[in-house]
Amino acid sequence: MFDLTSLTRSLRRPLALRIDTLLRRAGLVALLLVGLAAPPVAAADNPSGLPLPRFVTTRSNPINVRVGPGTKYDIAWVYVKAGMPVEIIQEFDTWRKIRDVDGSEGWLHQNLLKGERAGLVAPWRAEGEQIALRRDRKDDAPVRAWLTPKFRVELKECDGIWCQVVATSHPVGAASQNFEGYMLQSELWGVYKDEVFD
Question: What's the pLDDT at 43?
Fold first, then answer.
């Protein structure tokens, strides 16, 4: 006699096993795709263990920037002033590939860089424009000093909108003066948009 119930059970079992196998395989594929789509943890792959890219400053002067990671490579250009902000974009052993404000790239030994932060005031603005250094973190706060594009400032802290900076003037034949205040973060090269640090 023909038993429809047992036939249905026998058909269901292999189908259920096949569906289970397919789901497991689909799950593995999904896990692999998620792993491929996840952003890499850059810090784990770098010799320093620090994230890339990041801003630092030059330690001394003069500094030879090279076309490759080693002293056997030609000199691309020379920094003649210490404390200039640069962006580290790659690491190789003890060498750091940097990008400067003009977009030029080259290599420096890690000992020629330090973690202190500095910025350049609105280098994309026209020469002669004036950018306000304000007393407080407000658009209408009194102006402490007017700065020109590419003027170097020390970055003390940034909150994602405003940065506390120190601008040092070096007038010819007179003592230097420090002006401390706040600038819009969007007016500085040497800090990322929305970056927060203190």
Answer: 56
Q: What ranges do the domains of the chain cover?
A: 1-38, 42-116, 119-197
Q: Strand ranges (DSSP E) for 37-124?
A: 54-58, 63-66, 75-79, 85-92, 95-99, 105-109, 113-114, 118-121
Class of the CATH domain delimited by 42-116: mainly beta
pLDDT for 169 beyond 50: yes
> For the chain, what is the total number of helices (H) and then of strands (E)?
2, 15
Q: For residues 144 and 96, give the distance between their C-alpha atoms in angstroms, rounded to a whole number.
A: 36
User: What residue type is assigned to position 46 of the chain?
Assistant: N
Collapsed DSSP state (helix, strand, coil) of residue 64 = strand
pTM, two decimals, is 0.75
Contact 61, 84 (CB under 8 A): no
Residues recorded for the chain: 198
What lies within 8 Å, CB to CB, of 186 at 6+ separation is 193
